[in-house]
Amino acid sequence: MGSNPTPSAMSTSAGTDGAASRDAHGDAADGAPGEVEPDVTPMARALDEARAAERHGDVPVGAVVVRDGLVIAARHNERELTGDPTAHAEVLALRDAAAHVGHWRLHECTLYVTLEPCAMCAGAIVNARVARVVYGATDPKAGAVRSLYELADDPRLNHRAEIVGGVLADESSSMLKAFFAARR
Ligand SMILES: [Zn+2]
Q: How far, in Å, CA of 110 to CA of 108, rounded?
C-alpha cells in the first residue's frame, strides 16, 4: 500500500490547533446559529469528497480550495482510479484551483484536506503559495506539515502557509478506519 495511511496511523490528536474544532464539529444542524466555526463547513465538503473516493476503492481523502469564501475546487484521492501515484486529493484540487484562478499562484486560497498532507502534497502547497492549510486527522506515519516534517511552514523555504489541524478530525479518522477495516 506504499505510503497509504494505516489504521494505526490514524489519530485525532492533532495538537492544540484542533481543540476548538472538536467542540464545533457536527453542529451545523443542531448547534446554535453563528457558533459553527468557519472552517467546519468547507471541511464537511471535503469529507463529502472523501466519501466519493471510497466508492472507487481509493483511500477516502478529500480536499477543497476556498477563495473569497467560495469553493473553487473540490477533489478526492484518485490514485487507484487513475493509477497515478500523484493523484492525491490535494494535488488534484490545487490543479483545479489554479485553472480556475488562471495562475499557479494561490496566495489568496485556503486548502482544506481531511488528512494531514504528505511530503508531496506539502511541497505542492509551498509551490502553489497557498496561504492557509486546514487539515482534519493527523497522519503520524506520513504527515508532512506537523507529524514527521513541517514542510509547509519551514522558515528556510520561500513560502510559509498558516497551518491549522484537527478540524472534523474524528469524522475523517472514522471514515479511514472503517475503510481499512472493511478491507481486512
Ligand atoms: Zn499527498
A: 7
Q: Are 71 and 45 in contact (CB under 8 A)?
A: yes
Residue 90 catalytic? yes
Which residues are near ligand 1, the ion (C-beta closer than 5 Å)? 88, 118, 120-121
Give the torsion sign (CA, 27, 30, 32, 33). positive
- Total-model pTM: 0.82
Closest CA to 61 of 22, 92, 28, 19: 92
Tell me how far apart the 2 most distant CA atoms of the chain are, in Å. 44
pLDDT digits (tens, 9 = 90+) for 22-62: 444 444 444 455 557 899 999 999 999 999 999 999 999 99
How many angstroms is it from 41 CA to the middle of ligand 1? 22
3-state secondary structure of 77: coil
Is residue 103 within 8 A of residue 144, CB to CB? The reply is no
Exactly one of 54, 78, 90, 116 is catalytic; which is it?
90
